[in-house]
Design a protein that fits this description.
Largest sheet: 7 strands, parallel
Distance between the termini: 56 Å
Radius of gyration: 24 Å
Helix content: 40-55%
Strand order of the largest sheet: 6-17-16-13-12-10-9
Shape: globular
Number of strands: 19
Number of helices: 18
């Protein structure tokens, strides 16, 4: 099918040329010796920690970088393709607060919330990868990212995207855990079930920990989602295109370093730029329409795998605003081929996560997937034989063609399709009705679904040796904090 692009080829060429100008004239800071050495040896101009990257080095990196990255499930089978015009959906990470579906109150998130988030995401049919959603406040702060990783590895079979804090040992610990589950370093490199999401300090300031993580992943042949993210008006120009140029310069610099470390290293670029503070409130707005799908159009022009953002809301409750913003952002990124679309479950501009919102967005994601499903014209789909059999003025209800296809169409788990009388009575009529009290609104039905999932679903337990290896990594990480 034809996907939507906000940029034409000429516009992409102009943005690319503008980015090359920034890389060659302005340059960027790379605060890491190996990265500086790789760039300097390849022909970049290095002045202290400021690097100016020539166009031919960028062209080379774009020519050798993979055009797609495959992530695998715990079973070793391909689970999602990040590339082309494929798209997939997942939650976000690291919300400080949890909107508790049991009480309707906002509170600080704890490790049990990370576990429940992994279990709920694992059960959601239309979520393709898993993130932690929450930042646990009840574990040792210096190693909370290890606890997030352990919880995800133990409670989902889907691909995992993990985030590490400002310590390269966090990434090394996470990799060791993933190797234990995958069956060793070679098995993990051959069938990666995790990807690391690594932010730089600023788009044009690549801090030591981010570069070290990028280069270590590249050397291992493991995917890195490299994110020189910006907020327009603060660390990038206020205009969408100005911000896009600055972010793209950071993305291409990261790409160059990854390919210099290991040609063909899997690299996933951040796929949005232009996200901005609302200058009236100084809030970092996640659901702006203005910048959406601009940078992803340029990344399609390059042919690079990307990581985009959708399913978000700046609302404070799982209400009408939350549903509308989540639906609009998911659809916009999917129709523009946004590859891996994350941050489902985010509310309040990423401060708060909600499992209620996650299951609501699972229905939205299912709707989007059904809408974007490619159309295949076959004799069976055209139904001409059935039309001739039934003839004019008759009903198709009893025809075998109807029976064959009665279950083809997408069915929601939360959205209600019953008659009003059935809804008031709490009667049967679809998955959303099961176990719910009469007359519940959609938010309450979603909360009920969360509870049903938590009562009935968990990923199969890890083999004992893998679980013990994860526990050993956690123990070593905690011990390092005590010794520091």
């Amino acid at each position: 099918m034809q996907f939507f692009s906000r940029l034409d080829d000429e516009q992409c060429e102009r943005l690319h040329d503008a980015t090359l100008r920034v890389l060659e004239r302005t340059g960027l800071i790379v605060d890491e010796p190996e990265g500086l050495g790789l760039l300097g040896a390849a022909g970049a101009r290095v002045d202290g920690n400021v690097v100016r990257v020539p166009a031919e080095l960028v062209d080379w990196a774009l020519s050798v970088a993979p055009k797609a990255v495959t992530l695998y499930g715990r079973d070793g089978q391909p689970a999602l393709l990040c590339g082309g015009h494929e798209y997939s959906f997942g939650a976000g990470s690291d919300c400080m607060y949890c909107f508790d579906h049991r009480t309707g109150e906002r509170r600080r998130a704890v490790l049990a919330d990370v576990v429940e988030a992994a279990r709920v995401q694992d059960a959601c049919e239309h979520l393709d990868f898993v993130m932690s959603l929450f930042t646990p406040s009840d574990v040792t702060p210096e190693v909370m990212d290890r606890h997030q990783m352990a919880a995800m590895l133990r409670h989902t079979t889907k691909p995992i995207v993990y985030v590490t804090m400002n310590d390269v040992t966090a990434h090394l610990d996470a990799t060791e855990m993933a190797e234990a589950v995958a069956g060793g370093p070679d098995a993990l490199a051959a069938r990666p079930l995790v990807a690391c999401y690594k932010n730089t300090l600023f788009p044009l300031v690549h801090n030591a920990e981010a570069v070290r993580t990028l280069l270590d992943l590249a050397g291992r042949g493991l995917p890195c989602i490299y994110s020189p993210v910006s907020t327009a008006g603060t660390v990038a120009p206020m205009t969408v295109l100005g911000s896009t140029v600055v972010v793209n310069a950071g993305v291409l610099a990261g790409l160059v370093m990854a390919q210099l470390k290991r040609e063909g290293a899997p690299y996933i670029a951040i796929g949005w730029a232009g996200e901005a503070l609302d200058m009236r409130t100084m809030v970092d707005v996640f659901s702006w329409p203005d910048h959406r799908a601009v940078y992803s159009s340029l990344l399609h022009w390059y042919g690079l795998p990307m990581w985009t953002l959708g399913g978000v809301t700046d609302g404070k409750l799982p209400d009408q605003q939350a549903a509308a913003e989540a639906a609009l952002t998911l659809l916009a990124d999917a129709v523009s081929g946004g590859h891996m679309i994350h941050d489902i479950g985010f509310m309040e501009s990423a401060y708060t996560g909600s499992l209620t919102q996650v299951v609501l967005c699972d229905d939205i994601a299912g709707w989007v997937k059904a809408f974007l499903k490619p159309i295949e014209i076959t004799d069976e789909e055209l139904g001409l034989d059935a039309i001739e059999d039934v003839g004019p003025g008759e009903l198709f209800l009893k025809h075998k063609h109807t029976r064959r296809h009665a279950r083809d169409r997408w069915q929601p788990q939360v959205f209600d399709r019953r008659s009003r009388d059935e809804w008031l009575a709490g009667g049967a009529g679809g998955p959303s009705a099961a176990g719910s009290a009469p007359g519940l609104d959609t938010t309450a039905v979603a909360a009920s679904r969360v509870e049903r999932i938590l009562a009935e679903h968990d990923a199969p337990p890890l083999p004992a040796e893998a679980d013990a290896a994860i526990a050993a990594v956690l123990e070593k990480a905690e011990a390092r904090v005590l010794l520091a």
